[in-house]
Design a protein that fits this description.
The structure is a single chain. With 196 residues, this protein is mostly helical. It is built from eight helices and five strands. It has a three-stranded parallel beta sheet with strand order 3-4-5, with helices on one face. A two-stranded parallel sheet has the order 1-2. Strand 3, helix 7 (143-151) and strand 4 form a beta-alpha-beta unit.
Protein backbone atom coordinates (compact mmCIF):
# COMPACT_ATOMS: atom_id res chain seq x y z
CA UNK A 1 0.00 0.00 0.00
CA UNK A 2 2.86 2.39 0.73
CA UNK A 3 4.06 1.87 -2.83
CA UNK A 4 0.70 3.15 -4.09
CA UNK A 5 1.34 6.49 -2.41
CA UNK A 6 4.90 6.68 -3.76
CA UNK A 7 6.71 5.52 -0.64
CA UNK A 8 9.41 2.85 -0.96
CA UNK A 9 10.37 1.22 2.34
CA UNK A 10 13.18 -1.28 2.78
CA UNK A 11 13.58 -3.82 5.61
CA UNK A 12 15.49 -1.38 7.79
CA UNK A 13 12.71 1.21 7.37
CA UNK A 14 10.07 -1.35 8.33
CA UNK A 15 12.03 -2.32 11.48
CA UNK A 16 11.76 1.30 12.68
CA UNK A 17 8.01 0.94 13.14
CA UNK A 18 7.81 -2.76 14.07
CA UNK A 19 5.56 -3.20 17.08
CA UNK A 20 3.71 0.09 16.57
CA UNK A 21 -0.01 0.23 15.87
CA UNK A 22 -0.62 0.48 12.13
CA UNK A 23 -2.15 3.96 12.45
CA UNK A 24 0.97 5.13 14.31
CA UNK A 25 3.31 3.50 11.78
CA UNK A 26 1.45 5.11 8.88
CA UNK A 27 1.45 8.49 10.67
CA UNK A 28 5.21 8.14 11.22
CA UNK A 29 5.85 7.73 7.49
CA UNK A 30 3.29 10.36 6.48
CA UNK A 31 4.98 12.96 8.72
CA UNK A 32 8.37 12.14 7.20
CA UNK A 33 7.19 11.85 3.59
CA UNK A 34 3.72 13.41 3.16
CA UNK A 35 1.85 12.08 0.14
CA UNK A 36 -1.07 13.25 -1.91
CA UNK A 37 -4.04 10.96 -2.31
CA UNK A 38 -5.42 8.59 0.32
CA UNK A 39 -5.38 9.90 3.88
CA UNK A 40 -3.22 8.18 6.49
CA UNK A 41 -6.34 6.57 7.99
CA UNK A 42 -7.37 5.22 4.57
CA UNK A 43 -3.87 3.80 4.08
CA UNK A 44 -3.97 2.22 7.56
CA UNK A 45 -7.40 0.68 6.84
CA UNK A 46 -6.18 -0.72 3.50
CA UNK A 47 -3.08 -2.22 5.13
CA UNK A 48 -5.18 -3.77 7.91
CA UNK A 49 -7.59 -5.31 5.39
CA UNK A 50 -4.69 -6.79 3.42
CA UNK A 51 -3.00 -8.17 6.54
CA UNK A 52 -6.27 -9.82 7.64
CA UNK A 53 -6.54 -11.39 4.19
CA UNK A 54 -2.96 -12.69 4.28
CA UNK A 55 -3.11 -13.94 7.87
CA UNK A 56 -6.40 -15.75 7.21
CA UNK A 57 -5.00 -17.48 4.12
CA UNK A 58 -1.31 -17.98 4.91
CA UNK A 59 -0.62 -17.15 8.56
CA UNK A 60 1.89 -19.44 10.30
CA UNK A 61 2.99 -19.44 13.94
CA UNK A 62 6.54 -18.73 15.00
CA UNK A 63 8.38 -22.03 15.56
CA UNK A 64 7.45 -23.29 19.01
CA UNK A 65 4.57 -20.85 19.53
CA UNK A 66 1.74 -23.38 19.62
CA UNK A 67 3.76 -25.65 21.89
CA UNK A 68 4.51 -22.71 24.23
CA UNK A 69 0.80 -21.91 24.52
CA UNK A 70 0.04 -25.59 25.22
CA UNK A 71 2.80 -25.73 27.87
CA UNK A 72 1.36 -22.67 29.62
CA UNK A 73 -2.04 -24.37 29.71
CA UNK A 74 -0.48 -27.53 31.19
CA UNK A 75 1.31 -25.42 33.81
CA UNK A 76 -2.00 -23.76 34.76
CA UNK A 77 -0.97 -20.32 33.51
CA UNK A 78 -3.52 -17.95 32.03
CA UNK A 79 -2.55 -16.94 28.50
CA UNK A 80 -3.31 -13.47 27.21
CA UNK A 81 -2.46 -11.85 23.91
CA UNK A 82 -1.51 -8.18 23.88
CA UNK A 83 -0.86 -6.75 20.44
CA UNK A 84 -0.33 -3.50 18.62
CA UNK A 85 -2.20 -5.10 15.72
CA UNK A 86 -5.80 -4.18 14.99
CA UNK A 87 -8.53 -6.32 16.56
CA UNK A 88 -9.44 -7.67 13.12
CA UNK A 89 -5.87 -8.87 12.60
CA UNK A 90 -5.73 -10.43 16.06
CA UNK A 91 -9.02 -12.26 15.53
CA UNK A 92 -7.82 -13.57 12.17
CA UNK A 93 -4.52 -14.78 13.68
CA UNK A 94 -6.15 -16.51 16.65
CA UNK A 95 -8.65 -18.22 14.34
CA UNK A 96 -5.98 -19.25 11.84
CA UNK A 97 -3.86 -20.78 14.62
CA UNK A 98 -6.89 -22.38 16.26
CA UNK A 99 -5.97 -21.19 19.74
CA UNK A 100 -8.96 -19.00 20.63
CA UNK A 101 -10.04 -21.44 23.37
CA UNK A 102 -6.56 -21.41 24.93
CA UNK A 103 -6.40 -17.62 25.21
CA UNK A 104 -8.12 -16.28 28.33
CA UNK A 105 -7.97 -12.64 27.19
CA UNK A 106 -6.77 -10.72 24.17
CA UNK A 107 -6.45 -6.99 23.77
CA UNK A 108 -5.44 -4.67 20.97
CA UNK A 109 -3.60 -1.41 21.51
CA UNK A 110 -6.01 -0.10 18.86
CA UNK A 111 -8.45 0.73 21.66
CA UNK A 112 -5.83 2.51 23.80
CA UNK A 113 -4.97 6.20 23.62
CA UNK A 114 -1.35 5.21 22.96
CA UNK A 115 0.04 2.07 21.39
CA UNK A 116 3.25 0.27 22.23
CA UNK A 117 5.83 1.19 23.54
CA UNK A 118 3.37 2.79 26.01
CA UNK A 119 2.46 0.19 28.67
CA UNK A 120 -1.34 0.76 28.55
CA UNK A 121 -2.08 -2.24 26.33
CA UNK A 122 -0.18 -4.61 28.62
CA UNK A 123 -1.77 -3.14 31.75
CA UNK A 124 -5.25 -3.58 30.27
CA UNK A 125 -4.47 -7.16 29.24
CA UNK A 126 -3.19 -8.02 32.74
CA UNK A 127 -6.36 -6.54 34.25
CA UNK A 128 -8.50 -8.62 31.86
CA UNK A 129 -6.62 -11.72 33.03
CA UNK A 130 -7.07 -10.71 36.67
CA UNK A 131 -3.30 -10.83 37.20
CA UNK A 132 -1.02 -8.17 38.65
CA UNK A 133 1.50 -6.91 36.06
CA UNK A 134 4.41 -7.88 38.34
CA UNK A 135 3.19 -11.49 38.12
CA UNK A 136 3.09 -11.49 34.30
CA UNK A 137 5.60 -12.84 31.84
CA UNK A 138 5.45 -11.19 28.43
CA UNK A 139 6.85 -12.85 25.33
CA UNK A 140 7.73 -10.31 22.65
CA UNK A 141 9.26 -10.21 19.19
CA UNK A 142 9.63 -6.44 18.79
CA UNK A 143 11.63 -3.77 20.58
CA UNK A 144 8.58 -1.52 21.03
CA UNK A 145 6.62 -4.43 22.46
CA UNK A 146 9.41 -5.40 24.86
CA UNK A 147 9.69 -1.78 26.07
CA UNK A 148 5.91 -1.71 26.55
CA UNK A 149 5.89 -4.87 28.67
CA UNK A 150 8.89 -3.77 30.73
CA UNK A 151 7.29 -0.35 31.31
CA UNK A 152 4.26 -2.26 32.65
CA UNK A 153 6.73 -3.88 35.12
CA UNK A 154 6.43 -7.35 33.63
CA UNK A 155 9.18 -9.88 33.08
CA UNK A 156 10.04 -9.99 29.40
CA UNK A 157 11.24 -12.83 27.20
CA UNK A 158 12.19 -11.59 23.77
CA UNK A 159 12.39 -13.66 20.59
CA UNK A 160 13.83 -11.17 18.09
CA UNK A 161 14.02 -11.72 14.38
CA UNK A 162 17.42 -13.08 13.27
CA UNK A 163 18.55 -9.75 11.76
CA UNK A 164 18.35 -7.99 15.16
CA UNK A 165 19.17 -10.90 17.47
CA UNK A 166 22.73 -9.75 18.23
CA UNK A 167 21.77 -6.17 19.06
CA UNK A 168 22.72 -4.99 22.56
CA UNK A 169 19.38 -3.17 22.82
CA UNK A 170 17.72 -6.36 24.13
CA UNK A 171 19.82 -6.17 27.32
CA UNK A 172 16.92 -4.91 29.46
CA UNK A 173 14.90 -8.07 28.76
CA UNK A 174 14.90 -10.85 31.34
CA UNK A 175 15.68 -13.54 28.76
CA UNK A 176 16.31 -13.79 25.04
CA UNK A 177 15.49 -16.86 22.97
CA UNK A 178 16.41 -17.73 19.40
CA UNK A 179 13.09 -19.57 19.13
CA UNK A 180 10.00 -20.26 21.22
CA UNK A 181 11.04 -23.90 21.00
CA UNK A 182 13.33 -23.05 23.94
CA UNK A 183 10.40 -21.80 26.06
CA UNK A 184 10.37 -24.52 28.70
CA UNK A 185 9.88 -25.21 32.40
CA UNK A 186 13.53 -24.46 33.25
CA UNK A 187 13.22 -20.98 31.71
CA UNK A 188 10.03 -20.33 33.66
CA UNK A 189 11.70 -21.53 36.87
CA UNK A 190 14.73 -19.26 36.35
CA UNK A 191 12.49 -16.25 35.70
CA UNK A 192 10.22 -17.03 38.65
CA UNK A 193 13.18 -17.30 41.01
CA UNK A 194 14.62 -14.00 39.78
CA UNK A 195 17.72 -15.63 38.30
CA UNK A 196 16.89 -14.37 34.78
Amino acid sequence: MFGRVGLRLDEQDVRQTMGLRIDEAVAHWWHRFPWAGPSPSEVADAITARVVELVSAEGRPMPGALEAVARCARWGLAVGVCSGSAELVMAAALARLGIESQVAAWHSAQSELYGKPHPACYLTTAAALGVEPLECLAVEDSFNGAVSAKAARMRVVVVPEPATRDSPRWGFCDAQLASLEAFDASLLERLSSGRG
